[in-house]
Write a structure and sequence with these properties.
This protein is mainly alpha-helical. It has four helices and no strands.
Length: about 90
């Protein structure tokens, strides 16, 4: 029983505390719905090959995301180091 159905049953029970007819009706409707709706797992077709070229797929993205992807690709081989002016390894004086 789903949470939604449980709330419906609770409201029906509280609406007329002396009469069980609304509660029984809600329970009967819930059982009918559970019997009619199947529990089978639907499986779709596997995704096919990508047809769009890389540039066209990139243009479909939001500009902010597109910029992040391009920035990531451009800075992939970039190395940043810290050196002081008196560092003997860099040859600086």
């Amino acid at each position: 029983m789903s949470l939604f159905h449980a709330k419906q049953a609770k409201h029906a029970k509280m609406s007329e505390a002396g009469d069980n007819a609304p509660l029984e009706m809600v329970l009967a409707l819930m059982r009918s719905r559970d019997a009619i709706s199947g529990t089978e797992q639907l499986v779709g077709d596997p995704p096919g090959p990508v047809i769009l070229p890389t540039g066209d797929r990139l243009m479909r993205m939001h500009p902010d995301h597109r910029g992040a992807v391009l920035l990531g690709e451009l800075s992939e081989g970039l190395a940043v180091t810290h050196s002081t002016p008196d560092d003997s390894q860099t040859g600086a004086l």
